[in-house]
Amino acid sequence: MASLSQQGDDSDDGMDDFMEKFKKEKYSNAFSEKNWEEEFDKVPMFMKTAPDEIDPMKHPELAAIQSIIHDDDRPLEEQAESLKDEGNDYFKEKNYKKAIVSYTAGLKKNCSDSNVNAILLTNRAAAHFHLGNMRSALNDSVAAKKFKPDHLKALIRGASCCMELKKYTDALLWCEEGLKLQPTDKKLLELRATADKHKRAAERDARKAKVKEKKELSEREALLAAIKGRGIKLLKPKQRPKRSSDSDDDNRGPSRAMAGLDLDGLCSVEATGATVFLDEQGVMHWPVLFLYPEHQQTDFISAFSESSSFLDHLTLMFGEELPPWDTNRKYSPQNLQLFFEDHEKEYGMCFVKAGSPSFVILVNGSPFCEKFLSERKTIRL
Predict the structure, then answer these.
(1) For the CA atoms of 255, 257, 260, 266, what is the dihedral angle to 10 degrees?
(2) Distance (Å, rounded) from C-alpha 110 to C-alpha 133?
(3) What is the CA radius of gyration of the chain?
(4) Helix/strand/coil for 258
């Protein structure tokens, strides 16, 4: 039989074992210095961001909260309110797309509380605004105002949307509505001042554009009258549909540089932007194209004054230094002849095609010159 002292020792050992086991069970899931941040983030109240998909096994607390939010047995107002709160949480995390989904789900409950619906719409408008969906944001602001005309946040959001959409007049109207409710609201006062500034600038730019348009129209009419008075007829080129067999090779070469222009019989939107114009002295200047078909070359003069002579330009181009393509040294001013094509068989009238007068330059008496003139209807200058 064991002594009392031995029994006491056995009892103490048993108690120690029990306490050790109790501690292990009690603190097995407790925070430690190593994992406290990770474990803390698993608590719904302290989560920084919610997981995209809630797994009941990994996040039972979140699953329980979600089941409460989406409990269809509750009154519609409570369901809408819960979805609004869910959207707000996503909004705080800057997860605007998920916030929109929650706010939309809340609106689909069709609850009878106008205030809740107005807030849902205003909050969804804010989410759309941050995503850059300005028209959707404005539509939601309009809808929110219908539910609650005095909802200040909806009025501020509507004004902000109009500013982003450059609808400055509408922005001022939204601001005025809001300032009737809250005359000292700082945000609305700033928006109104900015909208008024931009509206005035837009109106000023519109007036300038109108004056400019009127001036350009007057100049164009004067230019057309001058062209007609000089016996010049404008031609619109026939547009040839591009065939599937056309290749890039067909459109190469300087002689085709004017082929792809946007034409109206007068304006030539050439790469240089050159067009015919009248200067202050009433002298006409044309963008002129010189064609050298024998060598498939061209020269483009952006502003050929009608007071200048062809000889002036030819002397400049073929005077001291001849072009590299003239290997036989034939293109000297005294050897050259100028022609323009007779498009309409009307002698005595110059025709302008593609907005730029074009002139054919040939070497006088050359075999190519004789062949070219036999195949084309031209008028010698």
Answers:
(1) -90
(2) 24
(3) 42
(4) coil
351, 233 contact by CB (below 8 A): yes
Separation between Cα atoms, residue 286 and residue 270, nearest integer Å: 12
**HSE value, Cβ hemisphere, 13 Å, CA-based, for 190:** 5
Cα 196 to Cα 184: distance, rounded to the nearest angstrom: 17
353 exposure class (CB count in 10 Å sphere: 0-12, 13-18, 19+): buried
Alpha-carbon distance of 234 to 260, in angstroms, equals 18
pLDDT 10s digits, 214-241: 998 998 888 888 888 888 777 665 555 5
Query: Chain centroid to CA 209: how far?
Result: 22
Report the DSSP pairing between strands 232-235 and 350-353. Answer: parallel
**What letter represents residue 297's amino acid?**
Q
Write out pLDDT tens, residues 63-97: 666 666 556 678 999 999 999 999 999 999 999 99
141: Cβ contacts below 8 Å, ≥ 6 apart: 121, 122, 125, 154, 155, 157, 158, 161
